[in-house]
Amino acid sequence: MKKRFLIILFAGIIAFAFAKTFIYSSKAYSYMAKGGDYKKEWAVVDSLEGQELNKSALDLVIKIYNKAKLEGNAAQFVKAVIYRMKLESQFEEFSLEKSIYKLQEETKNSTYPIKPVLHSILAESYWRYYEANRWQTYERSQTTGFKNDDIATWDINKIVNEVILNYQLSLEDAEKSKATPIDVYDAIVIHTKDFRNLRPTLFDFLGHRALDFYMNQEPEVIHPSYKFSVSDESFFNDAEAFAINKYKTEDTLSLKFYAVNVLQQLTAFHLKDNNIDALIDVDLKRLNFVKANSGLSNKEDLYLAALENLEKKYIDSPASTEVTYSIANHFQQLGTKYNPDNGDEHKWEIKKAYEICQKGIDRFPKSFGADNCRYLQANIKAKSVSVICEEVNVPDMPSRTLVNYKNLQKIFVRVAKLNDQLKGRNANYEGTEVLLKKYLDLKPVLEFSTTLPDDGDYQNHSVEIKIPKLEKGNYVILTGTDERFNYTEKNAVAYQQCWVSSLSFFSRRAAFGNYEFYIVDRESGAPKKNVTAQLWHEKYDYNTSKYEYVKGDKFTSNDEGYFSVKADTESKNYDVEFIDGNDRLHCRNALYLYSYNDREEKQKRTFIFTDRAIYRPGQTVYFKGIMLEKNGESNKILSKENTTVIFYDVNHQKITEQQFTTNEYGTFNGTFTIPQGLLNGQMSITNKNGSAYF
User: Fold this and answer.
1) DSSP 611-645
2) Whole-model pTM?
3) In this predicted model, what pLDDT tens digit does every residue of 433-491 receive, in sequence order?
4) Which of 3, 168, 249, 442 matches a 20 to 30 Å C-alpha distance to 23?
5) Which residues does 533 contact at the CB level (< 8 Å), separation at least 6?
6) What letters, b where the CB count within 10 A reaches 16 and e where it falls short, cover 179-204?
7) Is 594 exposed, middle or buried (0-12, 13-18, 19+ CB in 10 A)?
8) Percent of the chain as helix, strand, coil, to the nearest 5
9) CA 335 to CA 391: how far, in whole Å?
10) What are phi and psi of 20, to 5 degrees?
């Protein structure tokens, strides 16, 4: 999908650099630029940065800062603040925390139209600080009852509170910002196609920045799951009904509630000013948000009905094609659920998506939505092919290869024998095009074509094809969508290596990290004695900047086809090459030998949060968790991770357990009901690497 990237200069800078800002006295700032556009000054700053003369660049930025402040030029002043934050971080320790403190003062002493923008920057800065310090933040205890300005001691609740506060403050002067064209910040806003129609005012710009945070699920980990939800059909109502609906919550940290609130404000604003482009843009954002967060069983039907009503209402506007695209995209996603083993359900949804796209293109061919529809159509029509074959096949007997394909009626197959020059894994580091060229330069031993069934449903299909018998050796099977195997945007080429050998083997890890092997005949299963087993491992050659294969130990199978490999004191990946006369079999990554004492494990940690600290018997415990993995100094979120959460009583006896899989943000949530009649006291919820006590 092509997207409108509405970029403001500070967004990228704050993500990676924080620095100093300075306090200035309150004064009125001009809505429009004064004193020129400062192009010459900024060109010199960029030049100095390019030469890594950051101190000189900073000196010039300070002059621009003072000049813009004196002239009351809002856009140039904010731009100078941003550059100072960026450049000063090069010269000072703990610049991240220090820049936030100074940005707090900068914001406190500013006036409109700078103040709302600085609040938005400050909110983003707090969240960037959290993202850089997730691990430490979750380990901090919640502190209440006293004023605490030291961000290095804030827990996750405090950070989210401050982020919400500042995003809300950025929207506080709503009537002023609705009347302020985004042109006031032309100096720092990069405009893209239709930007002014979608973000015509400062309120639009700041509102959508706040929405991007409120729609993020990670901060929700600290909230009990029973709090404000969007699982009500009214959230799918048309724009007029949605804008005036009254939604309430007692949860002051409910991001979903704040998202709904901002969506209502933006919707009401553009219903009033009749900006159809901006209205449709925010309405689509609302419907996608509700669908993603609703727990209703019929949410897909409600979502589709809402889209179709929106498209019908504005069918005479070019912006309606963006709704058309969303409808087509909905059917395209439904089409991915097609499973031929379950009949024809969803089989024709992708074709329907293609046809819906065409209607949007025909209606307004030059619209942005039509561009998205063309992109989706190109994706739907794209050809693809892949092959899967057995890693080893029996000599002088036909074999089968599974072909997965889309939008093809015919494929071409070429089989070539690999020579020793391609034995190593270095070829895999050379890139697809280089590797394909090497394969296509080989003399083929087989070439043929095969017709494939295709009924025009634009779905992925699979079929097995027959590969004629081959003699012993190492081969590559290539499949292409054209006879010349051209690898282009319009043509697909796939390849798969395989061996043809009478050798087979079994291996297992033994005590102390040793490996045991049994070599047998592939057809009969009889032991193969006197087979040579050559170990190979990779070693990086700094002169050639390549991995080279180096021979390791050599073994010979006994009468039972057995040999063992002793664990190396140095951990290494090994390949094993089996040789029996003219029969050869090279198994890549066959074993990993390591010393138990040298192993380093990555550390997983789960942070579990409950909705309160004290309960009565019979009440429900609402909890959420986030799973992280720490590797040295770095940490990452664990998405799609399975975990078992156990509820223990006072005596650490299991009451019950539940299984969860984390979402893309590494979080999960659930409930436990406290049984009646148990001994009161401290109970816990725990998994293998985290606990919460209450």
Assistant:
1) S-S---TTPEEEEEEEEEEEETTEEEE--S-EEEE
2) 0.74
3) 788 888 989 999 999 999 999 899 999 999 999 999 999 999 999 999 988 888 777 78
4) 168
5) 517, 519, 554, 555, 556, 557, 563, 576, 577, 578, 579
6) ebebbbbebbbeeeebbebbbbbbbb
7) middle
8) 40, 25, 35
9) 32
10) -75, 150
